[in-house]
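Re: that backbone. Tokens:
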């Protein structure tokens, strides 16, 4: 089992869960797998998934009325973590579904 692509991801900061949808090499193009993993497990496996925010524009360009709770994750690091996690925890691999 190897992950071919991460379709979507979301780090829920309230529950500390990574919600991810992805395809493996064995999946057809019209299939997807959806899973949730506790974010602290990534740290236990030695991965730092959060990318650094290089705030080039500073605070002057930010809209004060919006809150951005969407945390950016390093896609390459996320794929590597997911491959390792699901290799070790084969029983946790979500089943593929048509979407």
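Recovered sequence:
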């Amino acid at each position: 089992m190897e992950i071919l692509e991460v379709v979507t991801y979301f780090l829920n900061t309230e529950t500390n869960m990574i919600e991810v949808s992805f395809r493996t090499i064995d999946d057809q193009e019209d299939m997807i797998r959806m899973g949730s993993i506790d974010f602290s497990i990534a740290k236990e496996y030695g991965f730092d998934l959060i990318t650094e925010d290089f705030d080039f524009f500073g605070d002057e360009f930010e809209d004060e009325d919006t809150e951005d709770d969407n945390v950016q994750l390093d896609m390459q690091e996320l794929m590597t973590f997911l491959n390792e996690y699901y290799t070790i925890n084969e029983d946790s691999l979500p089943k593929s579904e048509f979407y």
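Helices lie at 39-44, 75-88. The chain is about 20% helix and 30% strand.
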